[in-house]
Design a protein that fits this description.
globular; disordered C terminus; 503 residues; two-stranded antiparallel ribbon; single chain
């Protein structure tokens, strides 16, 4: 038997030597690649502009990571996350469809192309073939913008629960990084060296982003994830020597930093996201706490005892908010109660966007074409020195640019996550403790969706990649994936099986 075991070990060592790059395909390597890629995305993809110079670095890296993930992707991975894969493929297919060249006799008959058809007649360009989109360059940029989140999806669906828990801690670390970076921006002055983008909200702690709204919404969405990260750790939160106790202390310190920082960003969307995030997280904490007491068969506690932790947490946040306001450092609250011409302009954009969507239905104007198409329809009353880059309502903009296809994709995505939320709610208290991870991800994802009604956070590469991770966690939660299949280059042969049986 010892001889057989020794022979098996020699065979395995020889197999490892014959596949010197097998570690390149391991789960640990894929986790490290995804973590490094997320860091790169947050450092270079904090703006939604198509002309930011960091895209020259981010997009080649995204293509390489996507190719690496495709090499290890299997049918089992796709089957477990079929809805997410379908959404990604549908978005890519719709964007590529808009780039498909069409003969002029077909293109001129599409709704919304009448003005260009008349121009073709005046310039004698009747024979020009054009893609379906009204701005092919903008649509090509929209197609390339899908590469980064798709790379995160392809790698993320291949990892197991342990790897995703490490990624959860890494995402919270990115939140701490952008928060500290925002503090450095405040200390360095309104035109200091810590602002990463030339077109940004100078004087505000935007962190790794170019827009204060995106910074505020991202930080606010971290609260349910911080509670989830603490909940997953073993031990007791009362024992600072345990993993749960140490994580709880770190989360409390992080919350004490994030609340004033979100208020100082001057973001109305961030302030709204903060309120929603804290209320939803406190509700989840109360439900899970009551469920844990019931599972441990403890004596039923009073309503006051059950509600004490979330009430205390909300009270602390309220005190921090009031202290920030009293010190005169809050700008979001001042903008909330004051007049804001930009916010009024967002309301005026909605009917114009609806009009453009209606005139170009069902094909849409082309993914990513809002900027140039809006200028054709822009009324004189809304003319100003600055240009309007987005509709500030992403659902409405996708309907305008993507037409019926874009509306169907959004409807399908909302239905998928609504069904997931309903399934968690139906589980009740009995399954509350096991559903903390998907519930926290759904809360964070819901915050991003709500913010998309008044802004465009998911058009930022960093936020889009973050949203993909949330979608993966919301789909499976603590059982993100089953144990991975045998690694590349390590498939057992009949000789291996025979040796193991003989040993």
């Amino acid at each position: 038997m010892k001889a057989a075991a020794s022979k098996l070990n020699r065979h395995k060592r020889a197999q490892r030597r014959s596949h010197p790059f097998r570690d390149v395909w391991s789960s640990q390597t894929r986790t490290a690649v995804l973590g490094a890629f997320l860091m790169a995305v947050f450092l270079t993809g904090g703006s939604s502009r198509a002309d930011m110079q960091s895209l020259a670095l981010l997009r080649p890296i995204s293509l390489l990571v996507l190719g690496y993930g495709m090499l290890t992707l299997s049918r089992d991975h796709v089957r477990k996350y079929r809805p997410l894969v379908v959404i990604a493929l549908a978005a890519a297919a719709l964007t590529m469809l808009h780039l498909l060249p069409l003969p002029p006799e077909i293109w001129h008959r599409f709704p919304g192309r009448e003005t260009i058809a008349r121009i073709d007649g005046l310039l004698d360009l009747h024979d020009s073939w054009r893609p379906l989109t009204l701005d092919s360059q903008a649509t090509r940029n929209a197609l390339m913008a899908l590469v980064a989140p798709c790379a995160v999806l392809v790698l993320g669906i291949q990892l197991g629960a342990r790897e995703h828990e490490a990624l959860l801690g890494f995402v919270l670390g990115l939140g701490a990084l952008t928060a500290v970076w925002g503090l450095l921006q405040l200390l360095g002055g309104s035109r200091g060296p810590f602002y990463l983008y030339s077109l940004t909200n100078h004087g505000f702690p935007v962190g790794l982003f170019a827009n204060r709204n995106h910074q505020g919404v991202f930080l606010a969405s971290l609260f349910p994830l911080m509670y989830c990260w603490t909940h997953l750790a073993p031990g007791s939160w009362r024992d600072l020597g345990s993993n749960k106790g140490r994580r709880s202390a770190m989360v409390v310190a992080g919350a004490l930093l994030l609340v004033p920082l979100i208020l100082i960003t001057g973001s109305r969307a961030g302030l709204l996201a903060l309120v929603l995030s804290i209320c939803a997280t406190a509700t989840m904490m109360a439900i899970v706490s009551a469920a844990d007491r019931r599972q441990r068969r403890r004596r039923p506690s009073s309503t006051l005892a059950r509600m004490a932790p979330p009430v205390i947490g909300i009270s602390v946040v309220a005190v921090l908010a009031l202290a920030t306001i009293s010190l005169g450092r809050d700008r979001a609250f001042g903008r909330l109660i004051g007049s804001d011409p930009i916010a009024n302009m967002r309301v005026d954009l909605a009917p114009i966007t609806w009009r453009i969507a209606g005139e170009n239905f069902p094909w849409g104007t082309g993914m990513g074409t809002f900027d140039d198409v809006y200028r054709v329809y822009e009324p004189n009353t809304l003319l100003m020195p600055e240009y309007v880059n987005h509709a500030h309502n992403d659902f409405l903009e996708v309907f305008m640019t993507g037409g019926m296809g874009g509306a169907l994709i959004i409807t399908f995505a909302i239905a998928i996550f609504a069904a997931r939320a309903w399934a968690i709610a139906r589980g009740g208290r009995a399954a509350a403790s096991g559903n903390v991870w998907p519930a926290a991800a759904l809360i964070a994802l819901g915050i991003l969706f709500i913010a998309s009604l008044i802004d465009y956070p998911l058009r930022v590469p960093a936020m889009a990649s973050y949203a993909v991770l949330l979608a993966i966690w919301a789909s499976k939660g603590s059982s993100v994936a089953d144990p991975p299949p045998p690694e590349y280059g390590s498939r057992r042969t009949k000789a291996d099986q025979h040796l193991e049986q003989s040993s």
